[in-house]
Amino acid sequence: MKGSGGLVLTRRVEDLWELHPSFNIVVNCSGLGSKQLVGDMEIFPVRGQVLKVQAPWVKHFIRDGSGLTYMYPGIADVTLGGTRQKGDWNLSPNAEISKQILSRCCALEPSLRGACDIREKVGLRPSRPGVRLEKELLVQG
Question: What's the angle, vertex CA 128, arms to CA 124 and CA 129, rounded to 5?
């Protein structure tokens, strides 16, 4: 959109009314922040934990049927995963989960036992029971 004359601003917003009257349209993509920003009580985190390892011989991605065990080679490392823990806000890596991820991935690709420089990463994905796409006209009350 920027190439078509759109404007992208990065700033902290506490209330959508802060954007009025500067903008006619606001697309709210606040993810987990929508709980606080607009009182969206249906949004919840899905915790994901992965490992980043050095295994340059892994050239193809591998994924099991459930999608919980996977290997995705990148330019600098290979991502091994993972978890989907609904409602878990914990951003600290869990050593036992890391062992389980490595064990599951080694079962699919035994050469990963030779991987080095293992780093743990944790993130939260916003989720909800269904897609929310709606037009809302803000009226200050």
Answer: 145
According to DSSP, residue 20 is labeled T
Name the nearest CA neighbour of 23 among 2, 8, 1: 8
**Chain CA centroid to CA 55, Å:** 23
The closest alpha carbon to 104, from 82, 123, 86, belongs to: 82
CA–CA gap between residue 40 and residue 36 (Å, rounded): 7
**pLDDT digit string (tens) for the chain, length 141 residues:** 567 777 777 888 888 888 887 888 888 888 999 999 988 999 999 999 999 999 999 999 999 988 899 999 999 999 999 999 999 999 999 999 999 999 999 999 999 999 999 999 999 999 999 888 888 887 776
Single pTM value for the model:
0.80
Which of 38, 37, 74 lies closest to 54, judged by CA?
A: 74
Number of H helices, E strands in the chain: 2, 6
